[in-house]
């Protein structure tokens, strides 16, 4: 879903910039585009780590691994998941603030 948000956000940004230019002003997005890229990056890292965690679980059924391996992997994946969630909340909030505080008002973006 983070990938879809990024893919839909870039064309929307271009469209809003064109509309603002046509209205004789300039659209500003603050930190939202960078926050969205960060959220996508952390979501991708989290997804890869979840795949690795599942692979580790399957491997642990076939081979004997140290007892701490599963717990350490769980803790690491959980920490990265929390960071990914936080970056998504920050990016989502800044996007919502752009939409709801600046509805249709390009003049406010000057």
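Sequence proposed for the structure above (110 residues):
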């Amino acid at each position: 879903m983070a990938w879809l948000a990024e893919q839909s956000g870039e064309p929307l940004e271009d469209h809003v910039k064109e509309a603002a230019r046509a209205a004789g002003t300039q659209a500003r997005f603050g930190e939202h585009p960078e926050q969205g890229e960060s959220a996508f990056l952390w979501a991708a890292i989290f997804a890869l780590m979840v795949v690795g965690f599942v692979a580790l679980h399957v491997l642990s059924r076939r081979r004997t691994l140290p007892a701490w391996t599963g717990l350490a992997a769980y803790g690491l994946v959980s920490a990265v998941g929390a960071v990914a969630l936080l970056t998504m909340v920050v990016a989502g909030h800044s996007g919502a603030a752009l939409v709801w505080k600046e509805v249709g008002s390009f003049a406010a973006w000057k």
